[in-house]
Amino acid sequence: MDDAATATREDPFARLTEPDLRRRTSVKWRRFAPDVLPLWVAEMDVDLAEPVVDALQRAIRDGDTGYPCGPGYAEAYASFAAERWGWEPAIDPIRLVPDVMIGISEVFKTLTSPGDTVIVDPPVYPPFYSYLRHLGRRIRPVPLGPDLRLDLAALEAAFARSRADGAGTAMLLCNPHNPTGTVHSAAELATLASLAARHDVLMVVDEIHAPLTLPGAEFTPFLSVPGGESGIVVTSAAKGWNLSGLKAGLAIPGRAAADALARMPEEVGHGASHLGVIAHSAALHDGGRWLDDVRHALLAHRGLLVDLLREQLPSLGWRPGEGTYLAWLDFRALDLGDDPAAVLVERARVALTPGPPFGPEGDGFARLNLATSPAIMGEAVRRIAAAVAG
Ligand SMILES: Cc1ncc(COP(=O)(O)O)c(C=O)c1O
Predict the structure, then answer these.
(1) From 32, 61, 240, 265, which residue has the greatest number of CB atoms within 10 Å?
(2) Is the confidence at residue 9, as pLDDT, over 90?
(3) Over the Cα atoms of the chain, what is R_g?
(4) What per-residue confidence (pLDDT) applies to 366?
């Protein structure tokens, strides 16, 4: 059913041409020289959802550019979660934060201490390391397994070891996982939540990519699983609707974590922008159809990349994920060294995200962003194949 639905939808990424995109001034299209095709940072090459454009235009027209007020964003999120995932958080304890990474940082500042251990599961989004290091937290990596799924036995051992060390322990989880696109299952999350409860580990979960779970896969909110009520989720509409330039995020406590999150200073919310709140709320409230077009297009792009790689780069490894628009590509058989992205930007004039900053597991890997037009994807793969061939 999903394949049929995918085949009959228009691809929103096909509407914008390369010259259209080169007019953009954000980092994806400006970091590299104009002859480089950028398939790197997590921005999407798509027009904004109409309800978002309408809400922003209305705000600008009305001079509605002051400070945010009220629970509208939290309510929009709760309705979206209820409709999509059959689970609804309580509104009152939800806190506005400037964006997801600053929200995560403020949650750790409030609920952990310098020297505490934070477990992460590499390869993982590089700012997880930099923000935690900046806070003076000790990072303990527990890599994903070879199937790119959580290694629950290793996590249990790490929880037990950290507890034996005597320091406070937390885990920063990413679901869906950047860069692999892994969508953790309800069973995995329930096991993780029960292990965390047993070893007194604070679970902080970044669910920013959740709206981009692909058709056919199922996303489970961490706070909805048994034992998840002691966790804290930090999220926003930024990835799902391409709103990273419009800052506004949410920190959502499980039932048992509401009092703890309430200790986060009130000023943290002051960093969110009112236009951001307006945009994210409109996306969650009225952007469902747009999101579904994007999700179906990304599913088709994933299939297209499978075909392109099979035809042109058969020795490149890739285990496609079920969420996000990110493809975690294994170049190790191609002998491009630890950082294939550095080689390819020079030789192929294609920018991918380098693998090594995701952790040592990223050596020999690079991340490709599927949220672009099929034409640009096709040209990027053609250039990479030509560069490695010659
Ligand atoms: C997993 C993850 N978390 C957080 C962010 C950044 O979110 P924000 O700009 O709201 O800090 C990204 C951006 O790509 C991401 O992939």
Answers:
(1) 240
(2) no
(3) 21
(4) 98
